[in-house]
Design a protein that fits this description.
This protein is mostly helical. It has helices spanning about 45-55, 70-95, 105-110, 120-125, 130-135, 135-155, 165-195, 200-225, 235-255, 265-280, 285, 310-315, 320-325, 350-365, 375-395; strands at about 10-15, 20-25, 35-40, 260-265, 305-310, 335, 340-345, 400-405. The longest helix has 30 residues, at about 165-195.
Length: about 425
């Protein structure tokens, strides 16, 4: 050890011993931490299990990740396995439709070549939807796999109409191109939701390792299938949809397990709804299975039926702008209450906190029988009294309130 005069420069080490294993733990002065196994008499099966965890799971698992990561990983593995097997079936079908008679090995090799052409067009079109993917990464991840399976289905059934081979293959690759962009764009927000200790790179690397292993296993299964039960078109028409169902179910369960902690319209409305009903704040883990993957834009009555991102001239009458700014002074939101819903308009630099403030005002106002200027003012005053204690509680639950991802990109400067 270094001099105790400066505790920050000291190295610290200790040894932990159990019945079967002895480990030496060592803290360097610069903060680096290392572990060395001194003695290990565990059965070979236990050693192999630990080696597997170290290879395919982040360091410190399960304490270094948020809840749900194991379930996410299980279904991610199944998703990649079924997707890879489907790709072999579709490639062989495309080659048959083109008039070739490939072997299973040829089908696997050519699957890397048929990703060009129309696929690039699909990628370019989908790249314009990045803001929406930031707002709803789960929904777009599921949609990506639905598009991928639609493209794969077109390829599998292409031998049924050989004269339309080019159109079928082109449409299939177009859908796959969009799927590739959506899947890659949503990968980072999903991984970020599990990064508990700033270990995003470790999570990403281990996640890709698992994907690679199960892609290879899926390719092997696909080769076996096209050599046996899927050697005929009838076999492909039975096995293909079954693999697709497994694929879509896996990615849906994968996304439901992810505790995304950024604020978007759906999650903000759900937080406000739960707070007004119970007085408690839900965490990302609490809400993950309640989020709608198909209809994230649904209005929630108990949270004020708020719509975000409509054009200013559609949301608010120009004659009311000055009046609303007087009701909500120094705020970065404006509210316009209609018969069926409440429009919320945000300024360019509005954060998640600003969106929460506006949502609470809308919810309080909607709880009254009729909405007038007086009701809006009372709702605004009520929000201001609640927010100082509510905001720290929301942040303590793990929500990021420094930004609001509405997905539309329509903001205004007043």
């Amino acid at each position: 050890m270094k001099s105790p005069d400066n505790p920050l420069s000291m190295s610290v080490s200790w040894t932990e011993t159990s019945d079967t294993v002895s480990r030496h733990f060592f803290f360097q002065p610069d903060g680096q931490f290392s572990v060395k196994v001194l003695d290990d008499s565990r059965p070979i099966v236990h050693k192999m299990a630990e080696s597997f965890v170290n290879q395919f799971f982040p360091s410190g698992f399960p304490y270094s990740v948020n809840e749900g990561y194991l379930r996410y990983t299980q279904f991610r593995a199944l998703q990649h396995f079924s997707s890879a097997a489907l790709s072999v079936l579709s490639t062989q079908s495309l080659l048959y439709a083109a008039g070739l008679r490939p072997t299973p090995a040829q089908a696997t090799a050519v699957s890397w070549i048929l990703k060009d052409g129309m696929q690039h067009v699909g990628k370019l079109i989908c790249s314009n939807l990045g803001a929406r993917m930031d707002s709803e990464p789960k929904r777009w991840r599921v949609l990506a796999d639905v598009l991928y399976d639609l493209g794969t289905g077109l390829e599998i059934f292409s031998p049924l109409c050989p004269p339309l081979f080019l159109e079928t293959a082109g449409l299939g690759n177009f859908a796959k191109g969009m799927a590739v962009v959506a899947a890659r764009a949503t990968r980072l927000p999903i991984y970020s939701s599990f990064a508990k200790e700033g270990n995003l790179s470790d999570l990403f690397a281990k996640g890709e390792a698992i994907s690679t292993v199960f892609n290879v296993l899926g390719l092997g299964a696909g080769i076996q299938l096209v050599s046996t039960v899927c050697s005929s078109m009838q076999g492909k028409m039975i096995v293909g949809p079954m693999l697709s169902l497994i694929h879509i179910y896996s990615v849906s369960e994968e996304m439901r397990a992810a505790p995304v902690n950024t604020l978007n319209p759906q999650r903000t409305a759900m937080i406000v709804e739960e707070f007004l009903k119970t007085g408690k704040v839900s965490s990302p883990v609490d809400l993950r299975y309640k989020e709608s993957l198909l209809f994230p834009g649904r209005l929630i009555k108990d949270a004020g039926n708020v719509k975000v991102g409509r054009d200013l001239h559609k949301a608010i009458k120009p004659s009311r702008l000055k009046e609303l700014k007087e009701i909500f002074p120094n705020e970065k939101f404006l509210l316009s209450c209609g018969n069926s819903w409440t429009d919320m308009v945000l300024e360019h630099n509005a954060s998640g906190e600003d969106a929460l403030r506006g949502w609470l005002v809308a919810a309080y106002a909607r709880s009254e029988d009729s909405i007038s200027e007086r009701v809006l003012q009372e709702a605004y005053d009520k929000m201001k009294s609640v927010m100082p204690s509510l905001l720290p509680e929301i942040q303590a639950k793990g929500w990021h309130t420094d930004r609001f991802l509405d997905g539309k990109g329509i903001r205004f400067g007043f």
